[in-house]
Input
Amino acid sequence: AARAKEAESQEAAYALACEVRSLCLEAASLREEIDVLEQIAAFRTQLRDIRSRQAAAGVAGALDLTRAVTRAAAIRSDLREKEAEHRQLVRRIALLADVPAEQIRLRPPAAESLPDAAVWAPGELVDLALSRRPDLARAEREQDAARHAVAAAKAGLLPWFDYVEGAYEGESTRATAYADDATGYDATDREATEWQLRLAVNLPIFDWDGKEVRLAQARLAAGAARVQALRAQIRAEIAGVRKDYLRACAERGRLAAEGRQVRDVMTAKIDALAQEPTVKQEDLLAAREEVADYGRILLRADRECRRLALELESVVGGPLAPAP
Output
């Protein structure tokens, strides 16, 4: 029972650590998205100012100005909402970690390497999880406690003896007799020892129906069923999460390769077009906004990949070796 309680506390600590890691990833990814939104907000603010000057000069209509003002206000509203969500996440992390929120410093997700799940076979991950998972350890400890309870219940059906009372008494005498008709005497020694011991025989008459044994056996069967179900759940979770993680990593790699090419090419083209006097400034700002917004797609793919990496490590019961 004591080991089961210890395993339960380890399970709670591990669940808390997993939750903190998940919140840290979410907060750091949200910080990166806020940076992209700030770039987009800057482009929309510049476009709004251009439309305002054009409307004042009579070049742009009221509809174009209204659209520019509305889009700038909308992105600012989204930005404030994301910042508020980020502050809430930081406060939750500080509360769980028991540190002041001002001391929370989150590393960018890109600074941490992702685990290489491809080098781990599903069977190896399952063996690793079976040796690491604290919830499985707690279930096994409870099963052991139930097994000991069955043995104790069976032992309770046997009669036993109780000590009631014990006594000890010893006696030693010496007798000497003299005879009148002879010289000398006769001597007689006598020793006596007496032991008394009282024992009570206890017969478990009311437990001979085996109710306690059957109850303990039912708890043992339930504990064994929980262990088997948890092992089957671990195997299923590892198989599913590993497959999703490998797919997410492949998609992340594809988008990262395409994204670098798209951003480099498009940025170069936009910078070249900016030198052309015939190109409108508002068209350049719209193109730069689209390139910045494309970065949000890359961030979402990276966040999904890292989220699945954390989920895989949570299922396995600990960190995996990072990719080289």
